[in-house]
Each structure stands twice: as C-alpha cells, then as structure tokens.
Amino acid sequence: MVPKIEKISESLQVGESLHWDSETQSLYLVDIFGQSIHKYVPSTNRFTTGHVGKKTSFIIPVQGKTDQFVISIDRQIALIKWDGESTNILILEILYEVDNNTDNTLNDGKCDSVGRLWAGTFNPNISEIGEDKCSLYNFQNKKVTTLLTKVGASNGLAFDDKLKKFYHIDILSGTLNQYDFDVTRGTIFCLPVYKTLANGKPIYTLNPKGGFTKFKQGLDGMAIDIDGNLWVAVFNGSRVIKIDPRKPDSIATSIQLPVKQVTSVAFGGPNLDELYVTTGKMTIFDETPSGPDDGALFKITGLGTKGLPGVGVVL
C-alpha cells in the first residue's frame, strides 16, 4: 500500500513534540516559537490552542489527573491545568529547572513506560553554534538525573523495553545513538565496545562528512513502532525516514512531504496506525520556508505498522 499524506491543520511557526493520548483519543503538540500548546481531536476535527507566553517544547498529560499536564517553559518544567478548550492555562507548580546555560532551553520530552519523564536541552541559535553545551536528563519524584552531557542539541527520544534499548538524537552531530537501557532504574549505559557513554553506539548518521551546521539538515523528532523500527523526522530535509536499528546506517523507508522543516512524529489513532507529523517555518541559515503547507500538521496512513501508545507522566 502506498502511504497517504493528509494535511490536518493550518500552519504553526514550529510545531513539535507530538503526544497521542489513547484515553481521550486526542493529539497534543506545541508551537515552540508561537509559545502555545495545542490539542487536536480527530473524531471532531477540532483544533484548539492554549497560550503559554514563553517558549514551550513539549506537553504530556499527567496520569490519573483530568486536565493536568507537564510542559516545558524555557529551562523549567511546569505542572499546568488546561481544559483543552480555552486559550488560557493555569500554572500550578514549577516542578524542575535545569542547566545553568541561560542560552539553552528544554527541547523534546517523552516518558518511558513507567511514566518517568526524559528531556534534553537545545540552543535555539543552533545555526550559529558548534560546541557541545547541552545535556539530557530524566525527572522523577522531584529529582533531576543528568544522563548525558556535552550534547550538541538534544532531540528525538525512543524506548524499546523488549530489547532494553534507548535511542537518542543529537541534531547538531546528526547522529542517532543507541544505549542499553534499564527501565526500572531509569539509567542508560554502554558496553565497552560502544565507545563511551557520551557517544553511545551510533546506528545512523545523517551526514557522515559533517553535522547539521555544515549540511543544514538534521535528525529531529522520533517515534518507535511495534517492530522496533524508528520513524524519524528530517529537519530541512522534507521527509520522514524509517530506520531499523538492527541494520545500522541504512534507511528502510523514506516518505517525502511537501514541506522543508519536518520536526516531529508520533503514532496515533484508534489503532495506533496513523503517523502524525509536525512541521515548521522558522528562519534558519537566513532562509524562511514560505510554501502554503510549511508549518502544518500532517497525517500519514497506509504504513503497514502500528506504534506504541504514548505514556503520561507519573507525578
């Protein structure tokens, strides 16, 4: 079956960090530079917006709570209340703050299967930087654990409990890395043959002869399917690619989209067989995409696979 691509929404500035909530059959996402959170309900085709007022990079429901979410606000993680309809949100509590580098902000966030939150930092001036000044963390029980330092720009995350693997993207280096993963302890580690913890085991590098600042394309958000394959957004690359971690440095599938800045992906729908895709239209390298679909939300069907359900935060 040939995949079908549908445009779902009008343009955001930089759509990101999709999360499918199976309980409400709703899709959540953010607009980083639009400083807003969004909810899309496929059954009613309703798209709503809540205003944060500062850069926000992810929104994830809190397990067991109605209308409560965790979101990032610059370098902080906040607990908020939002009914999913009104434009206003209520900040209930600042839960965490990370990183002394005030140039950085939190980026992609995702929960593992026990509801532990993972997120890393990112420098919004990515086209101008070349140093590894970002980190990756996880958060649980009011405690912040630093997992990786000297990250160029933390991005996509995925967990495979069956294979006990964790996958992480550094968009600056253009590398998708694999780590051994202990979900009970929330730790990642590398065997000696994997070089060092900071590098992990690279299973795919987008630009082997140079990173993002040289080739102006980077690996961005990521989702995992039931077969353990990784579906990765290629920023500035107009496509989503499927990578089988068991076959390093090869692309199993590539799906072209009518936009340039593909930012994030997540499986959703009643059967988790619909791949939702966010895109952006930010100015980078002095270029601003201006096509009619840049920044829109898309849905891809007919992929012949299903994803794993999104997991809410346990507080």
UniProtKB/TrEMBL annotation:
A divalent metal cation binds at residues 16, 155, 220. One of its GO terms (biological process) is L-ascorbic acid biosynthetic process. The active site is at residue 220. It comes from the Eukaryota. InterPro entries: 6-blade_b-propeller_TolB-like, SGL, SMP-30. Pfam families: SGL (PF08450). GO terms for molecular function: calcium ion binding; gluconolactonase activity. Belongs to the SMP-30/CGR1 family. This is SMP-30/Gluconolactonase/LRE-like region domain-containing protein. It comes from Aromia moschata.
